[in-house]
Design goal:
By secondary structure, the chain is an alpha/beta fold. It has one domain: TIM Barrel. It contains 8 helices and 5 strands, in the order αβαβαβααβαβαα. Helix 3 packs parallel to helix 5 and helix 6 packs parallel to helix 8. The radius of gyration is 16 Å and the shape is globular. The termini are far apart.
C-alpha cells in the first residue's frame, strides 16, 4: 500500500482502501517495490494509525537494523537474489537470518521472519532454529499442487 491519504491519488492503494476490504496489514518495501526510507517511515506510521500491521521487507541484517527504529509489526529479511528460486535463505545464507535476528534485537523486539526461497517444512524448521519467528511465503505456496498440505507440513515442522 501507499502512505498517501484518501484523495486524488490515482493508482495508489491507501490504508483506508486496504482496511475497507478486510486486510489485516500490508507488506512494505518488498524487493519488487522498494521505496525510500522516508516513505518506509510514513507507510509504517499510517498503518499503525489505522490499527493495521506492517511487514517490512529488508534485504539484509544491516538494512533491518537501520529500519527497525520505525517499529514495524514484523521485519522479513529476504535477499532479493534468492526470492522465487526455491533455495531458502535459511540454507543458502543462514548467517543472513541469524545476523538479522541479532541486529534487530539490539534495537527493539520486532519479530524477524525470513523469506526468499522458503519452499518446504525443512526450510521453515531451519529458519526457526536460526532465530526467526516465522517465514514470509509466496512462490512455494502459489505454485504448490497442494497448498493446504504444504502449509500443514510447514506448521508441523515448528510444532
Amino acid at each position: 500500500m501507499d502512505f498517501d491519504e484518501q484523495g486524488a491519488f490515482t493508482g495508489k492503494s491507501t490504508v483506508e482502501a486496504i482496511k475497507s476490504v478486510g486486510c489485516k496489514g500490508s507488506l512494505v518495501n518488498h524487493s519488487e517495490h522498494r521505496i525510500p526510507e522516508e516513505q518506509i517511515a510514513k507507510t509504517i506510521a499510517r498503518l499503525k494509525e489505522a490499527g493495521l500491521e506492517s511487514m517490512l521487507c529488508t534485504k539484509d541484517a544491516e538494512e533491518s537494523e537501520r529500519y527497525a527504529k520505525y517499529e514495524p509489526t514484523y521485519i522479513a529479511v529476504e535477499p532479493p537474489e534468492l526470492i522465487g528460486k526455491g533455495v531458502s535463505v535459511s540454507t543458502a545464507r543462514p548467517e543472513v537470518v541469524s545476523g538479522t535476528v541479532e541486529a534487530v534485537a539490539k534495537i527493539n523486539k520486532t519479530p524477524v521472519l525470513c523469506g526468499a526461497g522458503v519452499s518446504n517444512a525443512a526450510d521453515v524448521k531451519k529458519a526457526v532454529e536460526l532465530g526467526a519467528k516465522g517465514v514470509l511465503l509466496a512462490s512455494a505456496y502459489v505454485k504448490s499442487g497442494n497448498p493446504k498440505k504444504l502449509l500443514t507440513d510447514m506448521a508441523e515442522a515448528i510444532g
